[in-house]
Design a protein that fits this description.
- It is built from 8 helices and 4 strands; from the N terminus they run H-H-H-H-E-E-H-H-H-H-E-E.
- With about 350 residues, the protein is mainly alpha-helical.
- The protein has a domain at about 40-175 and about 210-315: Rhopdopsin 7-helix transmembrane proteins (Up-down Bundle).
- Strands 1-2 form a two-stranded antiparallel ribbon. A two-stranded antiparallel sheet has the order 3-4.
- Helix 3 (about 115-150) runs antiparallel to helix 4 (about 160-180).
- The longest helix has about 40 residues, at about 240-275.
- The chain is elongated.
- Keywords: Membrane, Transmembrane, Transmembrane helix.
- It comes from Mytilus coruscus (Sea mussel).
Length: about 350
């Protein structure tokens, strides 16, 4: 076996070493790393990252629902809801991937029966894709907010968003599972390294690359617009400039998710291209198994920044109100929303 891993796919369809039979499915692929002596270099760092990510994801959800009642969840700001959705994806992804990696690390064999491995693969496909779609929606929302001063309408209880980010990958994953495309790939359970090699490319590699390209373009355009408008309103006063500043703050806050996305998935995107044309170096594969498993940690950093900005905003508003009351002026309500063209307001931070 070459030094190339089979994360998405493998071109290994040649007969086995003995020349007795052709590779039929992912179970015919040797467990990656044993022969090369890199087995624990793969699974131990991955398990550590997964555990830390899982703890961060649970902490985010616990803190969020402890400090804000769950019954008002859909009245929270979009950024606060996005954090919870991302944490949920991370937690479920980590739970499935942990059992997968742990089984392989302990037994040095791929999980059986295949239905169990296919379930692990489905969970990974579901929540990897859900996070990618989620961050893409965030990037689009930032772009629309910056250029048009509007938010995407996710519908009552965010049903449009949730159906899209969870329903679409679930449907694709179920179809892939029914067609026998999910299973072991030599490193863990995802798309079968033999039967599902091209399904993995079109289900993961192609969408991920598209999301990376689209997010990059939207991210650059949004920040160029913010930079340009920030210079124009630097010394401006009035309601319009306050609305503009509020939209900029909201866009910058939501852009944190896009930044975290690039950090988490850059290695997988590069891997997806590299493995189509040449053997992938082990270092890059190590980057994949590390960065792709730290989503909860990155989401935790975003969460801390959002909470800090929220606290600073509250302290600033309180101080401004106290100063105005102390000087004899009537306190005004701080601005927490952008008024849309239809007259409705929406939380922005």
């Amino acid at each position: 076996m070459s030094n190339r891993t089979t994360f998405f796919a493998t071109n290994s369809t040649t007969p086995s070493i003995r020349g007795v039979k052709e590779l039929v499915d992912g179970y015919d692929i040797p467990v990656y790393g044993i022969k090369e002596g890199t087995f624990y270099n793969i699974h131990v760092p991955a398990l550590i990252c997964i555990c830390l990510s899982f703890i961060c994801a649970l902490t985010i959800m616990g803190y969020s629902f402890y400090h804000q009642h769950y019954s008002t969840f859909f009245q929270w700001t979009k950024s606060e809801r996005f954090v919870v959705y991302m944490a949920l994806c991370d937690a479920l992804f980590n739970a499935a991937h942990f059992t997968d990696h742990l089984h392989i690390a302990v037994t040095k064999t791929l999980p059986r029966p295949k239905s169990l491995c296919a379930f692990y693969g489905f969970m990974l496909a579901e929540f990897i894709t859900a996070q990618n779609l989620m961050v893409n929606i965030v990037a689009i929302n930032v772009f629309i907010l910056v250029f048009y001063r509007k938010h995407l309408n996710f519908g009552k209880c965010d049903y449009r968003l949730l159906v899209y980010i969870f329903g679409a990958p679930a449907l694709g994953g179920l179809i892939a599972g029914a067609l026998g495309q999910l299973g072991p790939n030599g490193s863990f359970c995802y798309f079968d390294g033999i039967k599902g090699k091209w399904t993995g490319v079109f289900f993961t590699t192609v969408p991920l690359l598209l999301v990376v390209v689209i997010n990059t373009i939207l991210y650059i355009l949004s920040w160029l617009r913010i930079y340009k408008e920030a210079k124009e309103i630097k010394d401006s006063l009035g309601k319009s400039s306050r609305v503009l500043r509020a939209s900029h703050k909201a866009a910058k806050t939501m852009s944190l998710f896009v930044t975290a996305f690039f950090v988490q998935w850059w290695a997988m995107a590069l891997y997806g291209v590299w493995q189509l044309v040449a053997d992938v170096p082990f270092l890059l594969f190590n980057f994949v198994t590390t960065f792709s498993n730290v989503g909860g940690i990155l989401n935790g950093i975003v969460f801390i920044i959002i909470m800090r900005r929220k606290r600073e905003k509250a302290e600033s508003s309180t101080k401004a109100s106290d100063d105005k009351v102390g000087s004899g002026h009537t306190a005004t309500t701080p601005m927490h929303s952008i008024v849309h063209s239809n007259g409705h307001s929406a939380n922005v931070v």
